[in-house]
Design a protein that fits this description.
The chain has 484 residues and is of the alpha/beta class. The protein has 15 helices and 21 strands. The strands form six sheets. A seven-stranded mixed β-sheet has the order 14-15-16-13-12-18-19, with helices on both faces. The N and C termini lie far apart (66 Å). Bound molecules: nicotinamide-adenine-dinucleotide (NAD). Nicotinamide-adenine-dinucleotide binds next to helix 7 and helix 8.
Length: 484
């Protein structure tokens, strides 16, 4: 099919072939300038998922029989290909979903590290020798592939999240059907074009571009898959988890967050304030680990407010392609509408501590960042995952009120405390109901070699990244050999 009116069409990659989906078309525009088309998406239907399913099953016997070392060589080749295309894919992703280019390049670098990290797992020990109760019996465990794994990914980390699923899944011997978010599909397509350079066997990675309610639903409810790894909202994730549990498909759901940073009376504000501003406003607040609740002990409250006002003077809204951009637009029209509803609510029901007065291009989905106070801890601005550049500050009388407030949310992804008191730091690490807890560090920025995931409504019961991801993408087989 000839595309004449746009430079790029997000195309499926199924069984090693590039084929445009037969469904509806959608032109995608740059969120920093909605007059600039970035490319076009061709949505797929169940038919294409079924083709991907067939391809992934056909590719499985060969792929899982390769040695870990052989699979590792493909992952190293994928890393090299990505390294050679860093600028191109980072720029495309910035134009597709608005993340500042510096952060986007950092995300691509994270993807390269993840590929190399999991490649190295191909030759690492993967089981235990367990003493048998009988003489002459060797008993041990080994990791085996799950089989065909479905990956469903969100738009906010369009390179790193897919890779932190793909890389461990591949090294464990699984084949893949990947459905990216609608608003990350151009980047997903480009990523697969780059991975094609690694000469993977046909059908090992299958990309199906489509809508959640059509392609995602079919992938989860009908396709013959052996595992599903999902990242996205809690609303979608909990529903998919229910379906997988009924079908007895191993699943992993990484979902929303409403992360908090606590500032105690003895905090060093020179450390706390830049970290809190970075954790809250980078990526325009659209990270699952972004801080959006700032809980401040009363003895340091006034100094904190002065310090954050002054730090916010450095934060400027700019075109995300500017080399030094810190804060760009939000990712889409839908995000812009949703975040602006919360901005209106904040203007009605809170005290504004700081609002940028940057002149906004009307052609982009820009939102001036806000720091607010004067709302209760049950207020929607303090409870809902806004996913935008808004920080709500709450004054508390002591540590106990701070930690009670911190824990008073359905989410439990990440959290920080800022303190110079070691005992209080340890106390926080004990008391905080979140999967990733940090002292004198921002709530975002967790490293790839460490487990990633949350508690409560933020995650299911597994972890991504680090060694933990290998546990999700494999099963354990217990082997015993009588040799005497
Ligand atoms: P979303 O739930 O709307 O969509 C995520 C993915 O699920 C997309 O690919 C979408 O097409 C698909 N989907 C939607 N409905 C589906 C259905 N019925 N069946 C199958 N698939 C379906 O989330 P989003 O708006 O793309 O992403 C933002 C959310 O992701 C935020 O809540 C954020 O906190 C969360 N997130 C979490 C993490 C984490 O690791 N915990 C990381 C990044 C983002």
């Amino acid at each position: 099919m000839n595309i004449t009116h746009s430079p790029l069409v997000a195309t499926n990659w199924i069984n090693g072939k590039w084929e445009i989906g037969n469904g509806e078309r959608s032109l995608r525009y740059n969120p920093a300038n909605v007059n600039e088309p970035v490319g076009e998406i061709a949505f797929s239907s169940q038919k294409e998922v079924a083709l991907a399913e067939k391809a992934a099953h056909q590719a499985l016997p060969h792929w899982r029989k390769l040695t870990g070392n052989q699979r590792a060589n493909y992952l190293y080749a994928m890393a090299t290909a990505l390294e050679n295309n860093t600028d191109e894919i980072a720029e495309l992703a910035t134009r597709e979903m608005g993340k500042p280019i510096g952060e986007m390049k950092g995300e691509v670098a994270r993807g390269i590290q993840l590929l190399k990290y999991y490649a190295a797992e191909g030759v690492r020990a993967d089981g235990d020798v367990i003493p048998s109760s009988a003489n002459g019996v060797l008993q041990y465990t080994k990791r085996i592939a799950l089989g065909v794994v479905g990956l469903i990914t969100p738009w906010n980390f369009p390179v790193a999240i897919p890779i932190w699923k793909l890389a461990p899944a591949l090294i464990c011997g699984n084949t893949i059907i990947w459905k990216p978010a609608e608003n990350g599909s151009l980047t997903a397509y480009k990523l697969c074009r780059i991975f094609e350079e690694a000469d993977l066997p046909e059908g090992v990675i299958n990309l199906v571009i489509g809508k959640g309610k059509e392609v995602g639903t079919y992938l989860t409810e009908e396709a013959e898959i052996n595992g599903l790894s999902f990242t996205g909202s809690t609303y979608t994730g909990t529903r998919l988890a229910g379906v997988c549990a009924q079908r007895n498909i191993k699943y992993q759901t990484e979902m929303g967050g409403k992360n908090a940073a606590i500032v105690l009376n003895d905090a060093d504000l020179n450390t706390a304030v830049p970290a809190i501003v970075s954790g809250t406003f980078r990526s325009a607040g659209q990270k699952c680990t972004a801080s959006s609740r700032i809980i401040v002990e009363e003895g340091i409250y006034d100094s904190f407010i002065e310090a954050i006002k002054s730090e916010m003077e450095k934060v400027k809204l700019t075109n995300p392609l500017d080399k030094d951009a810190y804060l760009g637009p939000v990712a889409s029209k839908e995000q812009h509408r949703k975040v602006n509803l919360y901005v209106e609510l904040a203007k009605k029901e809170s005290n504004i501590i700081h609002e940028n007065k940057d002149e906004l291009s009307e052609d982009g989905y820009y939102v001036n960042p806000l720091v607010i106070e004067g709302i209760s801890k049950s207020h929607p601005l303090f409870q809902d995952e806004i996913f935008g550049p808004i920080a709500a500050v709450l004054k508390v009388k002591d540590y106990q009120e701070a930690i009670d407030t911190f824990n008073d949310t359905k989410y439990g992804l990440s959290g920080s405390v800022f303190t110079t008191n070691l005992a209080k730091a340890h106390q926080f690490l004990e008391d905080a109901e979140a999967g990733m807890v940090r002292v004198n560090l921002e709530t975002a920025g967790v490293e790839y070699q460490a487990p990633f995931g949350g508690l409560k409504q933020s995650s299911s019961h597994t972890r991504e990244q680090g060694q933990e991801a290998l546990k999700f993408y494999s099963n354990i087989k217990t082997c015993a050999i009588k040799y005497e």
